[in-house]
Amino acid sequence: MSASSSADNELIQSRVEDRGEAGCVAYVTVNNPEKRNTLGMRGKQGIAETFTRLAKNDRIRVAVITGAGEKSFIAGADIAEMKDLDADHAAVEHGLTHVANESIRMFPVPVIARVNGWCLGFGMELAAACDMRVGADTCKFGMPEVRVGIPSGMEANLLPALIGWGKTCELVFTGDIIDADEAYRCGFLQKKVPYADLDTAVEAMVGSILKGGPRAIRLQKQLTRDWERMSISDGIAQGIRACIAARSTDEPRRMMEAFINRKRTKA
User: In whole angstroms, what is the distance from residue 172 CA to residue 122 CA?
Assistant: First the structure.
């Protein structure tokens, strides 16, 4: 097992861990702990640049994003930077929120949010843009934008599909903070564990993904994005096409053969 690391800027750090035949796992860290990992425009651009670069590595099987330190995932955008923006500069800032989140949604393999603390505003949007979310039981979540004079926009649009319209409206209209128990109950978190067990839970999810076929996982990631924009009937048809596309390599035959042989061995 080996690892390489790099940073697009000091606010975003990344590391690629080579696990031999299993492929590689990418780890991305938001590195602004003295400000609870809040990010301004430079940090958001750094996220987009990092995931765009990592997407070119065909050996990466899964990515994990988290915040530096023990207290915060991403506690939102940089309010001090946003405070005096005029309309033109606000368009750039909010556009970068989308660019950062879209780089995660379009990443060719699953992205797991390792939520280790405060997850507010932009942070909750970014976690929503990830495919799965594992959180410590000490985490706090919220969409407090209305309390600083702007609506929750951009990838807040993903929340209704994850937690329902009622819970989304509660969060974006009130700006109230919810705890990890509530985030898990409403479906935002897939896993909620004690902080001491956070890495173990994330690694278990990573390990499960690595058991899948590399090409199958990439086809599945694209298919989940297709499902979001398609009707049920179109999504079914797209699924058929994806299953057929999987046959362009011998991955299905090899993995099905291994499955059958394992069953025979157990018998």
Answer: 12
Beta bridge partners of 140: 118, 179
Residue 73 in contact with residue 139, Cβ under 8 Å?
yes
To the question of pTM greater than 0.85 for the whole model, the response is: yes
- Residue 16: band (very low, low, confident or very high) from pLDDT cuts 50, 70, 90: very high
Give the tens place of pLDDT for each residue, 27-58: 999 999 999 999 999 999 999 999 999 999 99
Q: What φ, ψ does residue 192 adopt, rounded to 5°? A: -130, 120
Q: Given 10, 49, 125, 170, which residue is catalytic?
A: 125
The torsion angles phi and psi of 21, rounded to 5 degrees, stand at -60, -25
DSSP code, position 69? S
Task: Please confirm, yes or no, whether 125 is among the known catalytic residues.
Answer: yes
Please report, to the nearest 10 degrees, the dihedral formed by the alpha carbons of residues 173, 179, 180, 182 taken in order: -60
- CATH number, domain 2-210, options 3.40.50.2020, 3.20.20.80, 3.90.226.10, 3.40.47.10: 3.90.226.10
pLDDT (average), residues 141-148 = 96
Among 246, 98, 119, CA closest to 184:
119
Q: Which one is catalytic: 70, 145, 170, 228?
A: 145
Q: Contact 83/40 with Cβ under 8 angstroms?
A: no
For the chain, the domains span: 2-210, 214-266
Residue 17 designated active-site: no
Q: What is the mean pLDDT of the chain?
A: 94
Strands 2-9 vs 12-18: parallel, antiparallel or unpaired: antiparallel
- E strands of 162-232, at which residues? 177-179, 191-193
CB 76 within 8 A of CB 120: yes
What's the rounded Cα separation, in Å, for the pair 212 and 132?
16
